[in-house]
Structures are given as structure tokens and as C-alpha cells.
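Aim 2 progress update. The chain analyzed this quarter is reproduced below.
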Amino acid sequence: MRVKVISRSADEFTRERSQDLQRVFRNFDPGLRSQEKAVEYVRALNAAKLEKIFARPFLGAMDGHIDAVSCMAKNPNHLKGIFSGSMDGDIRLWDLANRRTVCQFPGHQGAVRGLTVSTDGQILVSCGTDSTVRLWKVPEPNLLEPEHSEDNDAKSLAVYVSKNAFWAVDHQWEGDLFATAGAKVDVWNHSRSQPVYSFEWGVDTAISVRFNPGEPNILAASASDRSITIYDLRLASPARKIIMRTKTNSIAWNPMEPMNFTAANEDGNCYSYDARKLSEARCVHKDHVSAVMDIDYSPTGREFVTGSYDRTVRIFHYNGGHSREIYHTKRMQRVFCVKFTCDASYIVSGSDDTNLRLWKARASEQLGVLMPRERKKQQYLEAVKNRYKHLPEVKRIVRHRHLPKPIYKASSLMRLMANAARKKDERRRAHSAPGSIPREPLRKRRIIKEID
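Predicted C-alpha cells:
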């Protein structure tokens, strides 16, 4: 007679220490659990609800400026320091961890319109409407420690004077050159008081300039004549140019895909372009109801943040047509500048109410150190939620956002106008000769012409 005996080794289930977790053995055969999908659906639903419950994105405001915050800059070598400039000429270095001013940079007699930091994090470059470019020595990182609490005033290393006001400045990602936007696009060196290159394609004022993160000799600039221009320093001449129907306020290159950039436009949309093919946009990012004033990419290149004249901050996926998140407060006024921090965990916004505000990039993210079990649990809930995100109940909870009443009404009105324009085009096309009115997508419709 045969007898089958169930046996197990004591080493497989015995805990080595009393603090260890009990080992649990599971049989993952799907035939044994017929309700597995139903259980996972309930978990996804609960995860979506919990994400809404714990969504607390606003961390704090930093006040100290006495006029509107007009521009900001990150220090690539220091994580918790950020520079801000205001319309009264005040420049400050902030400690994000303690939310306080570390250092001030007095000197500008007009509004500060542009800030940027050199690649090595040692030089701060500022420009403004007083027609000057100023170079500053960045304080040592130990000044950001709590024991150095007294305010320090920095002295400018150099002052370069021009005939015209400046509206933006940006530094090369690798190199010693920086570019300013004004009556023309000027490229400067740290050690020279006159521009190394000057570009002028058209007569209107340049309002934004950005160097390419992958190729240090390429930069993009936008101007008040609604144009976006690509410049190549090796050719010492403009390379390509497009003219849109409305003005572009700011430009940001994707740090992970350096051939792509996104333009923040006056019509409330953002347009992502491939620099090699400017005849049409790769993607149109909608949702703002007023002009988009500033844009900045996350260091991961997977999403970007925008600040708008409609008093909101929105976060978009790099290839998503609509925003995944919207931030607003009752006190926050028109947002003029936004930045992702260098670790992609936080967002800093500067607005017309003289305050800088610190936000979480993930509204429901838990701050502090996570235990391995907590991290695995959150990853599992995120995966389950992503698996069932197409189902109506989960989709409704995940997509819902509370909007201020003016923005809700404005977006409803814009939707109504867009539907009316679409119906009008359909009727005109229906009563015209076949093919006489071609269909043109929005990606091409906003571009008037491309100039090589």
C-alpha cells in the first residue's frame, strides 16, 4: 500500500528573527481564484479614491518680494536652491527646504526679466528692462544651512550695458556662452563686455530664448512678431523660422529628446515641435483658458509644467493632449514663471501676488522615506489602477478635478465656441464643391508659414 505524505522543510517557513514577517506561500493558479478580477477592480477603485483623499499638493508659499515675480532659475549643482527675480529689480536666492531667503542681489534699476545659472553653478546671469546684463557670484552651498540665517547681499562681478531692454536670458548647457533676447538675439561670453554673435531676422523684439540641451550651438527664440526661430552658432546665421497666428511667450526643450521643443502660446495652448520638421506640430496641449506665460520640462523629459494668465498651474504629459493635473489657490494671481526642481519631485511657481509657491509634482505622493513594503504596495496599487483605468467608474474618479468657477465657465464657453466653429466649417464644406475646402488639422492650422 502506498501512502503519500505532505512534508515540508522547517527552514522554508521558520523565521530567523522574531521581528521578521511570517512567510506566506501562495498558489497563483488562476483556476483557484475565480473572483480575482473582481477583487482587483475593487482595489483599483479604492486606490483611485484614496489618491483623491490624500491629494495635498500645496506645500507652502515663500514671500519676501514686494512686486510681481517675473522669472526664476535653478542651480544645476544644488538641489534645494532657486533664484527668483521680480518687477522691482530684486533678485533673491531661496532655500526651498526651509522656505526662506538666503541671499539678495541688489543692482537692477528696472524689472528683472531673465535669470540663468552657468553650467558649473558658479555664475548667475541676470538681465532686465534697465538695459543691463549682470554677472553674480553664486554663494557657497553651506550658506543654505540653517545656521547661516542672516541675509547676505552679493556684489555683481560684471555689468554689461546695452542700448535696448532685455526680455530673457539663457545659458549653454555645456560651455561659457549665454544668450539674451531683446531688440535682437545676442550671444555673450563671460569675459567679454560686447556680444560674440548678434542675430537679427526681422525687426520685432525677441521675448524668449533657450539653448538646446543636446547640441550646445543650437538655440531657439520667439519674438513678438509671432515667430519661432532656430539659430545655429556654427553658421553664425538663423537656420529656420516659422510664423504662427499668435505670439509664443516661452520655449522649453525636452532634455531627453533634444530634437523636440514645446512652445507656450498666447492662445492658451502649448505646441510641441520637432526642430527638424517645423511645418506642423507634433502635439497640441490644450486646457488653459488664457495665455500660457511660462513652461518648463521635468528632468525626466516625460512631462512639463505650465503657468498661465488664468491663475493656474498645469502638468502635462509630453505627448498628452490634456493636462493630468491642475493646481490653484484662492490667493494665487496670474502665474508668470514655473520651474520643476532638479529631482522632478517638486514644482515652484511665481505669480503676480509677489509669492513663490512650492507644490508636489505628484499631488498624493507621500513625503519622507518609504519602507520597501510601502513602496511595493504603492507600485502595486498604481499598476492595478493603470490596468482598470478605462472602466467608467475608475476613469471618472481619476479624471475629476475641482475647477474655480471662472475657469469652469471660461472652458465651457471655449468648448461651445469650438463646436460652433467646427459646425460652421462642416456646413461650408457641405455646400461647396468637393475638395474646394480642404480639411486642415489644428497642428497645421495655427502655423501661417515656414521660412528656411
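The mean pLDDT is 90. The helical segments are 10-13, 36-53, 372-387, 392-399, 405-430, 442-445. These observations will guide the mutagenesis experiments scheduled for the next reporting period.
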